[in-house]
């Protein structure tokens, strides 16, 4: 298990979030490419719809993309998202987590955020990485993993 990278990022309400804010609970950090796109919307709404079940497992959810807080606010309001969306404008947090990849489009190379999800335990250690996830299935897969790992520890 690796220690989770720290972060200091603003959410859709310009509130600062850091890893220490989540000490003592499970943290689901999911990276996504862009606000209000089809796959990202399905994934965000999946987490939104399961938020109470995650809360029952002492788990909190945060989404991270390179969009700015204003874009996050519009996205969160449009879909009634009930968890923080953090702005990683320079993609440094995505890079620290390993959620950044190089892509090429029309001869240009650019850095893109991968659709990865990280499960961080109450001690701040990454216990599971879901890479290049299916945005529709990801929230349920994460919840199932979390339930399984908590069952083993009880």
Structure, described:
The chain has a single domain, classed as Glutaredoxin, CATH 3.40.30. It is of the alpha+beta class. The chain has helices at residues 38-49, 51-56, 69-78, 92-97, 138-153, and strands at residues 2-3, 8-10, 16-18, 26-31, 59-65, 85-87, 100-105, 108-113, 117-120, 125-130. Helices cover 32% and strands 30% of the residues. The protein contains five helices and ten strands, in the order ββββααβαβαββββα. The two termini are 20 Å apart. The strands form three sheets. Strands 1-10-9-4-5-6 form a six-stranded mixed beta sheet. A hairpin with a 4-residue loop joins strand 9 and strand 10 (125-130). The radius of gyration is 15 Å and the shape is globular. The relative contact order is 0.22.
Which features characterize this protein?
Glutaredoxin; about 150 residues; globular; two-stranded antiparallel ribbon
- The CATH homologous superfamily is termed Glutaredoxin
- The averaged pLDDT comes out at 94
Beta strands, count: 10
With strands numbered from the N-terminus, the spatial order across the biggest sheet is 1-10-9-4-5-6
Structural class: alpha+beta
**Overall radius of gyration:** 15 Å
CATH topology label:
Glutaredoxin
Helix content: 25-40%
Could you describe the largest sheet, including whether it forms a barrel? 6 strands, mixed
Number of helices: 5
Q: What would CATH call the architecture? A: 3-Layer(aba) Sandwich
The rounded distance between the terminal residues' Cα atoms is 20 Å
Shape: globular
């Amino acid at each position: 298990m690796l220690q989770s990278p720290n972060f200091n990022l603003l959410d859709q309400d310009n509130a600062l979030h850091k890893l220490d804010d989540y000490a003592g609970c499970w943290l689901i950090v999911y990276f996504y490419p862009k606000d209000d796109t089809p796959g990202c919307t399905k994934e965000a709404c999946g987490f939104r719809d399961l938020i109470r079940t995650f809360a029952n497992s002492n788990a909190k959810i945060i989404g991270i993309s390179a969009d700015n807080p204003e874009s996050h606010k519009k996205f969160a309001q449009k879909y009634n998202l009930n968890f923080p969306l953090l702005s990683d404008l320079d993609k440094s947090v995505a890079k620290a987590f390993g959620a950044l990849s190089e892509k090429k489009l029309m001869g240009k190379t650019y850095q893109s955020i991968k659709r990865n999800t990280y499960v961080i335990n109450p001690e701040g250690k990454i216990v599971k990485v879901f890479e290049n996830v299916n945005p529709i299935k990801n929230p349920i897969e994460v919840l199932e993993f979390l339930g399984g790992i908590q069952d083993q520890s009880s």
